[in-house]
Prior knowledge:
The structure holds two protein chains of two kinds. By secondary structure, chain A is mainly α. Chain A has eleven helices and no strands. The longest helix of chain A is centred in the N-terminal third of the chain and has 32 residues, at 3-34. Chain A is globular and about 60 Å long. Chain A starts with a helix and ends with a helix. By secondary structure, chain B is an all-alpha fold. Helix content of chain B is 78%, strand content 0%. The termini of chain B are far apart. The mean pLDDT of chain B is 80. Classes of the chains: A mainly alpha, B mainly alpha.
Amino acid sequence: MxxxxxxxxxxxxLVALALAPLLTGWIHQWRAWLQNRSGPGLLQPYRALHxxxxxxxxxxxxxxxxxxxxxxxxxxxxxxxCAIVPTLSTDLPLxxxxxxxxxxxxxxxxxxxxxxxxxxxxxxxxxxxxxxxMLVGFLAEPALLMVLFCASMITRSxxxxxxxxxxxxxxxxxxxxxxxxxxxxxxxxxxxxARVPVDNPDTHLELTMIHEALILEYSAxxxxxxxxxxxxxxxxxxxIGLALFFPWGLAEADAPLALLLALPMLVFKxxxxxxxxxxxxxxSAKMRIFRVPEFLGTxxxxxxxxxxxxxxLGDA
Amino acid sequence: MIKLVPQFINLCATLILLxxxxxxxxxxxxxxxxLFMVQGAxxxxxxxxxxxxxxxxxxxxxxxxxxxxxxxxxxxxxHRVIRRLNVRWDVETLFNVPTTMLVGIGLVIxxxxxxxxxxxxxxxxxxxxxxxxxxxxxxxxMMMITRSKAVPxxxxxxxxxxxxxxxxxxxxxxxxMIVEFGIALDxxxxxLILGVFMFQIREKxxxxxxxxxxxxxxx
Lengths: 316, 219
């Protein structure tokens, strides 16, 4: 570990913290534009966070310490996830602490806490949201693992940084299994980040909401942390996708100056990714909750086919 | 550039497999026909690429034949049939799509393990695709078994033929031309007969559900 590594690690965390709400705002803005609305502006998530941090928090009377603690746990999980995903550089001192499987575990930990906290107060919406979140989660997790394994099998490593480095340095080749993994990953990230075909992040309509139902009881700084964590999660997922499927432009250990170039590159890639996400959300309709298992089952299936194809064609 | 062509063929193989799964999970008949058309188009691309890389002209002819029949004529005819039968937006009830998909994964694993020793013997550039082609054939079989309406069964039959042609093209660089023409003609005649047959079923039973064909006499 050297100073440069620590610097790039810190930079990655700070960039994630700063850019995550912007990415959310960017997607909202594009959704608005695509629907012929003028939109709230790019900085709206920052304004919302600022407002929430300056309000007084209201707690339910019977809330347990777990309820109070959950936003901090979830926020730190997401921040750690952002720290181990190679966003700007593959020279990350924290990265050996957690590989791709542990990353999925981190998301699972956050999911468990948010579901427990939602059930803690004992409102109907909280339990409903928790149940749905678990339904989505237990189907999305294996699919996500399969996607990561697809990339692992090509690069023969489960460490994210090694995977990304190998993928970025290979000679130009077409991997059918990576294509399938990419499709599956898109489906999983739509489900995991509560985006439109699975959940609508803007609605408070009781019959359809998942993510909003979970955080319905929170207010002020706790809500702000949860909203920020949701942005960070979206950011982490986008960065995993970009790092696995478009790994070009990342800085490496022996090229510190590439960090200068990596940031504009990341912003550019995220901007394109955000537009694509907004487009997907605009053209697809929200599906019934009972169709979600089918949707995620398909994602799992595509990822498994990717693995199988890799086994069959891998040496060809 | 020439080095990338086998990889493109593998990509085509993967797309064909993916489209087979999409067809299994598709409930609407119109989308089913469109998926079948796309599968045919990918097959054509694969044939042309193989023809380019192996320098065999027959593969171009076989590709052109597939293009004319599977991508243009048969989908057009099927669209016409379902418009005339008024089943365009029919939503067919399948038994449980996730179960079918899981069985599908099992079939793919079976096909892959079956094809692995065979494809080692092949000298073609895309010999590895045999497993995928075999999997497509099995998946289309399954589609014919699980569907209860006549039109999806016909599409399953045609898609199985896609898988067979793909297997033949990738493993042996195409069958002799006379066999190829024979199959194409067979499929064409088969579809025409099945089209007439579908009208007859419809006339007789007011529905395309082939379960009506199980009893011999009306009680």
